[in-house]
Design brief:
By secondary structure, the chain is an alpha+beta fold. It has 15 helices and 15 strands. The N and C termini lie far apart (43 Å). It binds coenzyme A. Coenzyme A binds next to helix 2, helix 6 and helix 7.
């Protein structure tokens, strides 16, 4: 059976930056360390006045197509995952295909296009759709373009305002991939939850504290479901664990929970027993409160152990690098977590080919999915071809007053004109409104 997976990826960050400790914290009257240490974020990316989910997605896709030498005929499917869509009918993939058709010979008329929605997990679901399409043999030798693109903006004053972000990830899903091979094994944790939603509104209604709890509960369910198909996993089975990263502090909580789960009944739990005791088991407690308290104590102790800290530093911390500087990219977040890990491995000179990643995706509303991937032989070449750090470093650093204007500019309820802060060059840019209220785009040389 041929392998199927992610052949290549490219990112496009919004070209503006909001510095959280130096610009955001003083205005909010908060200690900068709430952001850098508590949430784990240094900065958020924002779209310039001529950027939106279409331009960022199209720009990431064009970079990917150019680098891989692809023509429209090579693509049989374009799926866009987003929770920032501005149209309930016409999918963003049609806008992006329209942009790309301005610059390539040929067209995407025979490519199946769609838009996937399930909060931040939709990017992973689109990869799944592409995988299934290829595995079913319906792709006629063509690859799928999956684009996760979002402007993760919150209402001014919402607790989520500190975790905003904007950017796109384009991924090519193909046979015999260069980057990571997907596996057949998946686990799900899914339930009807009201933690974060956008009932026909641009900025989300968020119960932030509840969303943290739901993320952890669904992830745990997904992990159990994953083990029911893949077998019991061990902390050393995976080189990295990229998880959906709304902010790095969230992953810090999820990692501890995951570690407790995966060391249960292993020699790691036994080794740690001398230092911190064995994990509390529900059946040993008469009431739930006492069990919960014992668990909390165990988790606190586990967090301080050398074994946990080693594992966290090796397997999880390297996945958070990009997120710390760009904030939440919603559907793209788990994919930049994977990329952070691969970039870290490249910097460290690690031989990652053949090693496995445990990927945890999450979407509010709510669903978690966990699957394993195997790193491919050509991963290093792929990762070294990217300009992620250059893009991050090139962003325009907003003052507080400029940030307020940018937020208004991207508020769909306001009609705010704003001079651009950066000059578009060799990229797609928003070009005003059409006669039916559609957005128009042009390629700026
Ligand atoms: N130094 C170090 N850490 C600090 C700090 C300081 N001066 N001040 C606060 N912190 C820590 C807090 O202890 C907390 O960490 P903990 O949860 O591990 O205890 C963290 O920083 C955040 O502080 P908190 O007061 O909880 O922040 P908040 O209430 O303003 O907002 C969210 C947190 C998550 C509710 C908010 O960012 C949000 O709504 N985000 C959007 C929803 C989201 O992303 N959900 C995730 C699941 S998808």
């Amino acid at each position: 059976m041929t392998t199927v997976g992610i052949d290549a990826m490219e990112i496009w960050t919004g070209k503006l930056k909001l510095d959280l400790p130096n610009t955001f914290a003083p205005e909010k009257g908060e200690d900068p360390e709430k952001y850098t240490k508590g949430l784990g974020l240094n900065a958020s990316s924002f779209p310039d006045s001529y950027e939106d989910i279409v331009t960022m997605g199209a720009n990431a896709a064009k970079k990917l197509m150019d680098r891989k030498g692809l023509e429209p005929d090579d693509i049989g499917r374009i799926d866009v995952a987003t929770e920032s869509s501005f149209d309930n009918s016409k999918p963003i993939s049609t806008y992006i295909a329209g942009c790309l058709e301005q610059v390539y010979e040929g067209d995407f008329h025979h490519a199946n296009k769609g838009e996937r929605k399930f909060a931040c997990i939709a990017g992973t679901q689109s990869i799944d759709d592409a995988y299934n399409w290829i595995r079913a043999g319906r792709n006629r030798g063509r690859a799928a373009l999956v684009i996760a693109t979002d402007t993760a903006l919150y209402a001014r004053g919402d607790a989520g305002e500190a975790t905003q972000g904007a950017g796109a990830v384009a991924m090519l899903i193909d046979e015999d991939p260069d980057l990571v091979e997907l596996s057949m094994e998946q686990g799900y944790g899914s339930a009807d939850e009201t933690d974060f939603l956008k009932p026909n509104q641009q900025f989300p209604s968020v119960d932030g504290k509840r969303s943290v709890k739901v993320y952890l509960a669904r992830m745990r369910e997904a992990l159990e479901d994953f083990e029911s198909v893949a077998g019991k996993i061990h902390p050393d089975d995976f080189a990295y664990g990229p998880f959906h990263t709304p902010f790095p502090g969230m992953v810090r909580k999820a990692a501890l929970l995951a570690y407790r789960h995966i060391i249960r009944d292993t020699e790691v739990e036994e080794e740690l027993a001398e230092e911190i005791g064995r994990q509390p088991r529900q059946e040993a407690f008469d009431d739930d409160e006492a069990f919960t308290e014992a668990l909390r104590e165990y988790m606190d102790a586990l967090k301080g152990t050398e074994q946990y800290q080693d594992w966290y530093g090796r397997t999880i911390e390297p996945t958070l690098g990009i997120s710390r500087d760009v904030g939440n990219w919603y559907t793209g977040s788990v994919h930049i977590a994977r990329l952070s890990a691969l970039m870290h491995a490249a910097e460290q000179g690690e031989d990652l080919a053949g090693q496995r990643l445990l990927v945890g995706s999450y979407g509010s509303g709510a669903q978690a999915e966990i699957h394993a991937e195997t790193v491919c032989d050509n991963w290093l070449e792929e990762v070294e071809a990217l300009d992620v750090q250059e893009q991050i470093d090139a962003r325009y650093d907003l003052s507080w007053a400029e940030y307020e204007e940018v937020h208004d500019r991207h508020n769909h309820e306001k009609d705010k004109e704003l001079e651009e802060f950066t000059a578009p060059e060799n990229e797609f840019a928003f070009d005003g409104w059409g006669r039916m209220g559609e957005r128009k785009y042009r390629y700026v040389e």
